[in-house]
Specification:
It is a single chain. Strands 3-2-1-4-5 form a 5-stranded mixed beta sheet. Helix 2 crosses helix 3 (75-92) and helix 2 runs parallel beside helix 4. It is built from 10 helices and 5 strands, in the order αααααααββββααβα. The protein is an alpha+beta fold. It folds into 2 domains: 10-167, Four Helix Bundle (Hemerythrin (Met), subunit A); 183-272, SCP2 sterol-binding domain (Nonspecific Lipid-transfer Protein, Chain A). 46% of the residues lie in helices and 9% in strands. The chain has helices at 13-26, 43-61, 75-92, 98-117, 139-161, 170-180, 184-187, 238-245, 251-256, 264-267, and strands at 198-203, 210-216, 219-223, 232-236, 259-261.
């Protein structure tokens, strides 16, 4: 029996890629040096990181990958390894012109999508989605996770240069935030609550919707239970949601900008959720 992919993102990569290329081509020289929400990275650094994502993925298409120099036995090991990998590339790309970055990105975009299109959606992925607590993930989820990487890093660039609207559409925003929400059960794994306790998370606006996190059989699960009265409700704006889950703002900032109803033990964990490797 055929299964449908829970979060469809593969068809959106060409759209996202074209928007990024058009944006980067439009930037004046000074914009490339503007700071972003990505900690110490400038617009040029974030663009270089997105190019790195392309190049590493295309290498997989060509049958090549570089294994870690040492063992990765914990989530912290994974974070440190990826941080070092990312920093090495970004630092090296400082000597490369923005025009070259755009050309290499444009050249690799199609092959990047070709690689993901070649994967069986429900086969085991080469990398798990660790922030969702998975030791093994299916390809569709790995692809959706990579979509969120492409989306939020492009939005970091757009935030820096004041051009955020193109990515805040239902078509492009909803798959990103819906993928982020897959981290909720893992985030709440140690929260004790009685069977049937539910939390309603709302992202407001035309691109948002509601998610329900429920305690079932001693674990938290995402459910579609829109008729159920929740024990706690959290309402986030679209801008707060994507920044919160990618460490663009602090938990305290997220709480100040949100509407919160219910006990703190049920609502506080959401503001610590990070749906990226960090």
């Amino acid at each position: 029996m055929d299964r449908s992919v829970p979060i469809q993102t593969l068809h959106l990569f060409p759209v996202l890629n074209e928007l990024l290329i058009d944006l980067l081509r439009s930037l004046p020289p000074d914009d490339w040096n503007k700071p972003t929400l990505a900690k110490q990275w400038t617009v040029k650094d974030v663009a270089a990181h997105l190019l790195d994502t392309n190049m590493r993925t295309v290498s997989l298409l060509e049958g090549y990958s570089l294994p870690p120099a040492g063992p990765i036995s914990s989530y912290r090991d994974l974070v440190e390894y990826l941080n070092q990998l990312n920093a090495t590339w970004v630092n090296a790309m400082k000597r490369v012109s923005p025009a070259q970055i755009i050309r290499m990105m444009d050249d690799s975009n199609r092959r990047y999508v070709d690689y993901y299109a070649s994967l069986a959606p429900f086969a085991p992925a080469i990398y798990s989605v660790a922030w969702a607590g998975e030791d093994e993930s299916l390809n569709w989820f790995h692809i959706a996770r990579d979509y969120t990487e492409k989306w939020h890093h492009q939005q970091q660039i757009r935030e820096a240069v004041g051009k955020t609207e193109p990515l805040m559409t239902p078509e492009l925003y909803y798959p990103c935030i819906s993928t982020f929400m897959r981290g909720l059960p893992h985030t709440y794994r140690d929260v004790q609550a009685k069977e049937g306790t539910s939390i309603k998370i709302i992202v407001s606006g035309k691109a948002g919707r509601s998610w329900f996190l429920s305690k079932k059989s001693h674990k938290w699960v995402l459910e579609d239970i829109s008729e159920t009265v929740a024990d706690a409700t959290i309402i986030l704006s679209p801008e707060v949601a994507w920044k919160l889950f990618t460490k663009g703002i602090t938990a305290n900032m997220g709480r100040r900008e949100s509407i919160i109803q219910g006990g703190e033990y049920l609502t506080a964990p959401l503001f610590s959720m990070v749906s990226v490797i960090a």
